[in-house]
Amino acid sequence: MLYVVIIFLCLAILLYLLLGGADFGAGIVELITPVKLREKMRTIAYETIGPIWEANHMWLIITIVILFVGFPTIYTVLSVHLHIPLLLMLLGIIGRGTAFIFRHYDAVKDDMQRIYNIIFTYSSFITPLFLGIIAGSMIAGEIDTNATTFYSGYIQPWFNYFPISVGLFTVSICGFLAAVFLMGEAADKEIKAAFTRQAKVLNIATVIAGGIVFLAAEIEGISLMRELVTNPFTLVILLLATASLVLLWYFLGKNKKVLTRLIAGFQISMILFAVGLHYFPDFIILKGGNNLSLYNSAAMGKPIITLGWALLIGGVFIIPSLVYLIYSFQRNRSVS
């Protein structure tokens, strides 16, 4: 049953990045959209993500519940030593959601709309930034459970080149996913062309940010690149991600909505899979070498068995319901 819980944990993290990432990325795309096209872009984004944007946070909630119930030691270390980036990420989620609602449902259209737009766009940037910083901090090896000062215990684990570079990489991923998704929803030729250009620019930014991640890893003594390319399994996965990049650029702008989205999702999934496979079963790399893995930190016995069954039963209802939710709103939008 432990493997069932681990599979659901990995699936929840992946889906939160892909679905929630495309959601956050809408604000990032808005930041780089020409002013004259922003109103059209906002309308398309609202019609596309408006009905389902709140459902995307389900995967974050599932991740938190799995860690809290199934891996309490990991949950404790994360919530204590990374509480600052966690708090900033949550504030970004709250600010973004609030601004998203007010700028569309506010009965009075006045100067506050400009404030809502600013909060929405910059919260959309801040949230994936700190999500990536948290992920980078988990494998940077700077979390010290025996720290004696505030800086070494709560600042140093995440305020370094490597976690920040992972944060910027995550921002680029989210913007790229959103641009690809919105590109398929645009009927207007001008805005569709703008989304296509943004998808290409953000894809280039993702590649550059990925290179910065490897550079930051080398600076901080994390041999990430060498270990990924010397492992035959992770090397094959990275080659598949690279091949998908070529295919993606070929199909961008060819009005292949579903295929382009699948390739983009595959590319990001392969990158995450390569890194995850490299570190598995370790979930947090601690300073000093006493790593927290999904094996040695699991709550064995009844908690993990009960959690596993709850996830299996819940998955029977949640996953088909989510698929139908997305399908129904996409269908209604195409009919209208």
TrEMBL record:
Pfam families, per database record: Cyt_bd_oxida_II
Membrane topology recorded in Swiss-Prot or TrEMBL: Multi-pass membrane protein
Bilayer-spanning residue ranges: 6-32, 58-78, 84-103, 115-141, 161-181, 201-219, 231-252, 259-280, 300-327
Domain of life where this protein originates: Bacteria
Keywords for this protein: Cell membrane, Membrane, Transmembrane, Transmembrane helix
Any one GO CC term of the record: cytochrome complex
InterPro entries from the UniProt entry: Cyt-d_oxidase_su2 (IPR003317)
One MF annotation (Gene Ontology) recorded for this entry: electron transfer activity
Principal location: membrane
Localization in the cell: Cell membrane
Example of a GO biological process term: aerobic electron transport chain
Similarity-based family: Belongs to the cytochrome ubiquinol oxidase subunit 2 family.
Name of this protein: Cytochrome D ubiquinol oxidase subunit II
Organism: Marivirga lumbricoides
